Amino acid sequence: MFSRKTAALMAAAALTLTTVAACGDADDAEKGAQTAAGWPRTITHEAGETVVDAKPERIVSTSLSVTGTLLAIDAPVTATAVTAAAGGTTDENGFFAQWAEIAVERGVAPLYKVGEFDLEAVIAQDPDLIVVSTSGADSVMDQYDALSDVAPTIVVNYGDQTWQDLAEELGVATGLEAGAANVVQEFDTLVEETAARIAILAGTTASVVSYNPGDTSPVGKPTGPHAQLLMKLGFTVDEPPAEFDTSAQKREDFSFTSYEGLADSVTGDHVFLIIATDEKVEAFKADPTLANVPAVRSDQVHPLGLASFRMDPYSATEIVNWFGEAFAK
After folding, report:
1. Which helix (H) or strand (E) holds 265?
2. Domain ranges of the chain
3. What is the pLDDT along the chain (329 residues), one digit of tens a residue?
4. Are 208 and 224 within 8 A, CB to CB?
5. Cα separation of 159 and 311, whole Å?
6. Where does residue 123 rank: exposed (0-12), middle (13-18), buried (19+ CB within 10 A)?
7. In contact, 304 and 273? CB cutoff 8 Å
8. CATH superfamily name and code, 198-326
9. Which of 23, 268, 285, 314 is 20 to 30 Å apart from 7, CA to CA?
10. d(C-alpha 266, C-alpha 274), whole Å
11. Are domains 41-186 and 198-326 of this chain identical in fold?
């Protein structure tokens, strides 16, 4: 005959087994749901392959230049590397101005300043995905192994592809393929409508320049994202001569052109200056070494604004809207 104590113990044990079974069922259900949604998935990227177990909910971007595209596809970015605060291209947090307001609204935290890598700051964010870039001032490729020990880490190259391609790549890594596709489609529609409205004459050439008076100036290559956008708008982008390229390694976006070779490299009917306002345009036109540049002679040098140096969905949209106004028929 069971005592009341024995009966109570048996009841407690049964409850415990039921709870454990329920938890197990819940875990199995969650795993089943993740599997049905395509997780875990193996992401192939610039540094190899990385297994991401579940759809990321806390993403850390060590690349400030990639953060805008992540935000545009509604990726759950919790923190990003930042740059010097309150400059012409940034807000007081060091976020790029074109997406700073959105980052603040979503509670994105400044991680560390570009060039001042802080592993402890990354760890403190408890990320389930870390994004790194292959090159640029914001690249921390040399920290890839250390970051991979913290969380699944992927490496992307924003220099040799358009932001649209980057968005699609990030969409796969974050499970936001549909959001990425929508952002790309909306932008491509805007570009098509703008190109039809401004109707650039066939054969009109263009050069893209980040002008640095008396120093090396990046000149856009046809394979770069700025040039790709200009070509969709109807321009033909000239290839800068390789002989003046001082780049330490091969790049697909810009030729870092010596000052001595700049005049021979900027041959377009129109010159578009990035990270530039009207003041920079006047400085370019007043440079005596550039006096015979075709666009200077015809007064077709244009500023693309301060946010134009890095192509992401936000800055690219600003550029297209500018073309729609400046070149309106």
Report:
1. helix 262-265
2. 41-186, 198-326
3. 444 444 444 444 455 445 545 555 545 544 554 554 689 999 999 999 999 999 999 999 999 999 999 999 999 999 999 997 656 789 999 999 999 999 999 999 999 999 999 999 999 999 999 999 998 889 999 999 999 999 999 999 987 788 999 999 999 999 999 999 999 999 999 999 999 999 999 999 999 999 999 999 999 999 988 999 999 999 999 999 999 999 987 888 899 999 999 999 999 999 999 999 999 999 999 999 999 999 999 999 999 998 888 889 999 999 999 999 999 97
4. yes
5. 10
6. middle
7. yes
8. Nitrogenase molybdenum iron protein domain (3.40.50.1980)
9. 23
10. 14
11. yes
Cα–Cα distances (Å) from 173 to 75, 124, 156, 263, in that order, read 10, 22, 11, 43
Q: How far apart are CA 223 and CA 211, in angstroms?
A: 19
Amino acid in position 136: G
DSSP strand pairing (205-209 vs 109-113): unpaired
CATH fold for the domain made of 41-186: Rossmann fold (3.40.50)
Which three-class secondary structure state does DSSP give residue 63? coil
Reference 327, options 206, 218, 226; nearest CA is: 206
Cis upstream peptide for 40 (omega within 30°): yes
Token pair of 125 as six digits: 């964010």
Alpha-carbon span 219 to 240, nearest angstrom: 7
At position 96, the amino acid (one-letter code) is F
Q: How far apart are the first and last CA of the chain?
A: 98
Token reading at 186:
């909306």
